[in-house]
Amino acid sequence: MKNKIQSKVGKAFDKKLGDAVDTFTCSKEIQSGNFDFATQTYPVITVEAYTGRGVLFGSYLKDMVKPTDYQVTDCKAIVLQNEVTQVPQIGDVWTTSKGRFKLVNIGVDSVSATYTAQLRKVSA
Q1: pLDDT digits (tens, 9 = 90+) for 57-72
Q2: Pick from 35, 84, 89, 118: CA 20 to 30 A from residue 67's CA?
Q3: Would you tell me which CATH number, out of the four given (2.60.40.2950, 1.20.1050.10, 2.40.10.270, 2.40.50.140), belongs to the domain 2-121?
Q4: Distance between CA 56 and CA 65 in Å, rounded?
């Protein structure tokens, strides 16, 4: 079931939904080690990056159920799990054609084919 959904939606992303699909990238620092009191940070041990695509700028305006920490300017993303190169986490910042967006909330559908993400615009 999962493979069939991902295949059909992937084809729709390529054709019928092509004008609504955007790509995104995320690059985040992984910190670990002893806290540096002078800089108030932990040392960066590596930088992880991932990419994906989906319908990124959907709206919550017509939805009956909204996340509890919803803001009017938030947008909804539907992303195929098999097209994201790493599991997204809350707090990640996605760079898109429309700017940078912080991942506020993320959910998985019942067959684990897609992620539904709540995105919030990040200032420069």
Answers
A1: 887 766 556 667 778 7
A2: 84
A3: 2.40.10.270
A4: 18
